[in-house]
């Protein structure tokens, strides 16, 4: 019975990783749209000195960099979430690493990180990821 409860916790961690990943990727895509908007400002600016173009270029670089980081972070969480729900042993370690970094992302990342560490570091949670055990591919 206890194993079934921990399996539910592990499935919830995987589901939350998928949701967190999709939302993060969506934020990344919207940030990328802002970067594209900044590019449009650069190309449409016919007046002003190089100061305005420099600022717009810096904005493009910042938005594009943040967007790429957010998209990669989101895709990683989504892929790991799917693998955690399948109880793959390697996914547990990657989820622990991502969850540890998520602790820094207040407030929702912190909650996800704490819950991930609590579930996946528990002995019963670990047992679900032993090779040859677990539900396999769903």
What features would you describe in this structure?
With 138 residues, the protein is mainly alpha-helical. It has one domain (2-127). The protein has helices at residues 2-44, 50-85, 89-102, 108-121, 123-127. Helix 1 (2-44) packs antiparallel against helix 4 (108-121). The longest helix is centred in the first third of the chain and has 43 residues, at 2-44. The mean pLDDT is 87.
SS summary, helix count:
5
Total count of domains: 1
How are helices and strands ordered from N to C? HHHHH
Shape: elongated
The average pLDDT is 87
The percent range for strand residues is under 5%
What about the largest sheet? none
Quaternary structure of the protein:
single chain
Radius of gyration over C-alpha positions, nearest whole angstrom: 20 Å
Roughly how much helix do the residues carry, as a percent range?
over 70%
- The first-to-last residue Cα distance is 21 Å
The overall strand count is: 0
């Amino acid at each position: 019975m206890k194993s079934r409860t921990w399996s539910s916790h592990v499935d919830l961690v995987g589901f939350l990783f998928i949701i967190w990943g999709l939302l993060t990727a969506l934020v990344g895509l919207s940030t990328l749209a802002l970067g594209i908007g900044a590019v449009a400002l650069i190309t449409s600016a016919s007046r002003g000195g190089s100061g305005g173009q420099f600022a717009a270029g810096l904005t493009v670089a910042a938005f594009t960099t943040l967007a790429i980081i957010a998209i990669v972070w989101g895709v990683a969480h989504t892929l790991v979430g799917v693998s955690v729900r399948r109880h793959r042993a390697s996914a547990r370690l990657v989820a622990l690493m991502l969850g540890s970094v998520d602790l820094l992302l207040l407030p929702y990342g912190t909650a996800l990180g704490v819950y991930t560490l609590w579930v996946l570091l528990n002995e019963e949670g670990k047992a679900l990821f032993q090779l040859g055990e677990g539900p396999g591919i769903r």
